[in-house]
Amino acid sequence: KAGVTQTPRYLIKTRGQQVTLSCSPISGHRSVSWYQQTPGQGLQFLFEYFSETQRNKGNFPGRFSGRQFSNSRSEMNVSTLELGDSALYLCASSWRTGGYEQYFGPGTRLTVT
Amino acid sequence: GQQVMQIPQYQHVQEGEDFTTYCNSSTTLSNIQWYKQRPGGHPVFLIQLVKSGEVKKQKRLTFQFGEAKKNSSLHITATQTTDVGTYFCAGSEQAGTALIFGKGTTLSVSS
Questions:
Q1: Which residue of B20, B35, B36, B99 could cross-link B43, Cys pair, CB 3.0 to 4.6 Å?
Q2: Tens digits of per-residue pLDDT, A81-111?
Q3: Which of A69-83, B27-41, B61-75, B93-107 has the lowest average pLDDT?
Q4: Closest chain B C-alpha to A56 CA, distance in angstroms
Q5: What is the CB neighbour count within 10 angstroms for residue B75?
Q6: CA-to-CA distance for A46 and A98, rounded, in angstroms?
Q7: Which residue among A43, A92, A99 places its CB closest to the CB of B97?
């Protein structure tokens, strides 16, 4: 079974721009969660989608948004990028919503200059 | 809100020594999970504990869930260089809620 895939793997953007990241979950998994990983803060939960509905949300500003499509693929959007948004963005899929074992993708490394 | 804390933040050991990382939650957890992230890699699920006082073993790794379901530990016996990486614990307060990760313990092993 293919693992979680994320595109693009690397991205360089300028402050003020917006960015869209994509995640394809493991086949059959309907839950997709997004995390931001930085050296100082570890893994911080952004949000989780299940069956195209946002089920859980972390403490991030409204500039961070997401959506899920009927095929369970998910996108995450960050608008008005700030330098502090530079991080590794990890997507994880699971067969159930909320608190079940997560299968992570390789991540998208975002650098904001 | 729910907080999950891990100690120590870093640990260096000689190959063959034991290693333990501890995880403490500010609230009672419905379950605790452990993940390992190798340098340059992504977190990989190791195990989930659900019951109070539960102990599970995977070869040289022993995982424990506290009686009060607010703490957990991961113990590695006789570390090897392949054990290098960051170990994260993660828990959720109740089924259906988000998984909150600790900041991890980074293990380095010298041969």
A1: B35
A2: 999 999 999 999 998 887 789 999 999 999 9
A3: B93-107
A4: 6
A5: 15
A6: 13
A7: A99
